[in-house]
Amino acid sequence: MEELVAGKIHDEKRQGEAFLPDIESTGIHNKHFYIESYGCAMNFADSEVIASILQQNNFGATANFEEADLILINTCSIREKAEERIRKRLTEFKTAKKQNPSLIIGILGCMAERLKGNLLEEEKLVDIVVGPDAYRTLPQLIQEAETGQKAVNVLLSRDETYADISPIRLNSNGVNAFVSIMRGCNNMCSFCVVPFTRGRERSRSALSIIAECEALFNDGYREVTLLGQNVDSYYWRDEENNTNVSFAQLLEKAALISPLLRVRFSTSHPKDITDEVLFTINKYENICNYIHLPVQSGSTRLLQLMNRTYSREWYLAKVDRIKEIIPDCGLSTDMITGFCTETEEDHQDSMSLMEYCEFDLAYMYFYSERPGTLAARRFEDDIPLEVKKRRLQEMVNLHRVHSLKSMQRDVGKTFKVLIEGTSKKNQDELFGRNDQNKVVVFPKMNFKKGDYVIVKVHDCTAGTLIGKAIS
Ligand code: SAM
Ligand code: SF4
Ligand code: F3S
């Protein structure tokens, strides 16, 4: 599997940007593309599919947009702020185009799907607009744009999974990789734009998922993260062998590739995660004991308005069940403050749910109304911005206490850590993650990236465990 470095990543959940070195050895290509990715891990995985499609069409990657013939921006629409950031970036690229009129600028992903031709016609910000299910047509669209035509394809598909395309790894550390197992989402959470930008849910062939994981392992990768908006509803029918594959079975197949390959997954939906999945996680040492289980609110009334299809009690019972079956399971969540009609009492319900769960990690946002969603059509966005933000701050403060407690509980313990690279702060230290997804730093000694090492933790900060390798 080939590896290229191109563009930048912008991922809230990875907290920070990767600044990338320029690539070498692109001489065989007569044109170069630069790609920047925003939003969730699925967008990053898509960028790797896009890189593969472009490479087959004689485009080489570059990490420097000034030397690109084609600039692509893979976008996110999840909150208004995400779109504002992308618009700002597009304006910067437009300035580059003034200096180099033959430069082609393309917008891909969720914002392209949501705004369709508007970006091209009204705002004149880009030359190409491509939705998440139309990346195979990118080479034709580039040709059209080169001849000055408007190039748009935002058709959503019921069956596209890009299963046969072998992604080219971008910005890779050679240790962890994302593997898309499904696309789209059939849940209609009322606040969420994803069902509109990504279309209907469909599962990718288990055979191609496992083949991709095996190829990664053979190339030296030691961790795969299986990706979908709702991985627990993964379901693939193997017509040839007349069998069905559930998510638990898929996890098992991935775990069996090698005990040296760690398997992670994201995202789980509280209504769909099953005991079978939990028992499978528990059965295999290399399936990480870590579940991202977004709750969104602790108020059953709000959960109903959000169309999450579970209650506070259901969620809490799920958390209890996870801890019962996998006692040392790391748990994280997503929370929204200030959703339509949220009262102080609802907010306190969210806070008390967080007190109960003491999440190791939480991604918290204030509600941002998205045009066209069920909530935008049915409910008034009636909570003032300052109230949304105040509640968010209270929640962040509470979570800080929990995450520090969670880190402090690990001081004195030993963990198996998969080494991901050299610590940014200290060249003499390495960093990696433990099973529960916590970052661990420790002195380098003779260890290297991709090794597993047992580390004894002697200290911590709010975000990092600090230890020493003992084997
Ligand atoms: N599929 C996952 C799930 O079921 O929770 C995550 C989807 S979304 C990409 C990631 C998170 O963004 C959500 O869990 C939610 O907390 C947040 N989010 C989605 N729409 C939002 C909105 N309109 N305003 C604020 N946050 C939002
Ligand atoms: Fe959005 Fe809900 Fe689907 Fe997650 S499960 S992507 S929040 S609609
Ligand atoms: Fe954003 Fe689309 Fe992902 S809206 S969060 S990039 S599915």
Q: What keywords describe this structure?
A:
471 residues, Rossmann fold, pyruvate-formate lyase- activating enzyme, eight-stranded mixed beta sheet, five-stranded mixed β-barrel, binds S-adenosylmethionine, binds iron/sulfur cluster, binds FE3-S4 cluster
Secondary-structure arrangement, i.e. CATH architecture of the largest domain: Alpha-Beta Horseshoe
- How many beta-strand runs? 25
| Helix count from the secondary structure assignment | 14
Calculate the mean pLDDT score and round it.
93
Low-confidence stretches: 1-5, 9-27
Query: What is the CATH superfamily of the largest domain?
Result: tm_1862 like domain
Quote the beta fraction.
Answer: 15-25%
The amount of helix comes to 25-40%
Rg, nearest Å: 22 Å
Distinct ligands: S-adenosylmethionine, iron/sulfur cluster, FE3-S4 cluster
Q: What is the CATH class name of the largest domain?
A: Alpha Beta
- How would you characterize the largest beta sheet? 8 strands, mixed
Account of the 3D structure:
The chain has 471 residues and is an alpha/beta fold. It folds into 3 domains: 123 residues, Rossmann fold, CATH 3.40.50.12160; 234 residues, pyruvate-formate lyase- activating enzyme (Alpha-Beta Horseshoe), CATH 3.80.30; 56 residues, Nucleic acid-binding proteins (OB fold (Dihydrolipoamide Acetyltransferase, E2P)). Helices cover 33% and strands 25% of the residues. It contains 14 helices and 25 strands. Strands 2, 3, 4, 5, 6, 7, 8 and 9 form an 8-stranded mixed β-sheet that branches. The protein has a 5-stranded mixed barrel with strand order 21-22-23-25-24. A 3-stranded parallel β-sheet has the order 11-14-17. A hairpin with a 5-residue loop joins strand 22 and strand 23. Helix 8 packs parallel to helix 9 and helix 12 packs parallel to helix 14. The radius of gyration is 22 Å and the shape is globular. The two termini are 31 Å apart. The N terminus is likely disordered. Bound molecules: S-adenosylmethionine, iron/sulfur cluster (SF4) and FE3-S4 cluster. The site of S-adenosylmethionine has 18 residues, from strand 19. S-adenosylmethionine binds next to strand 19.
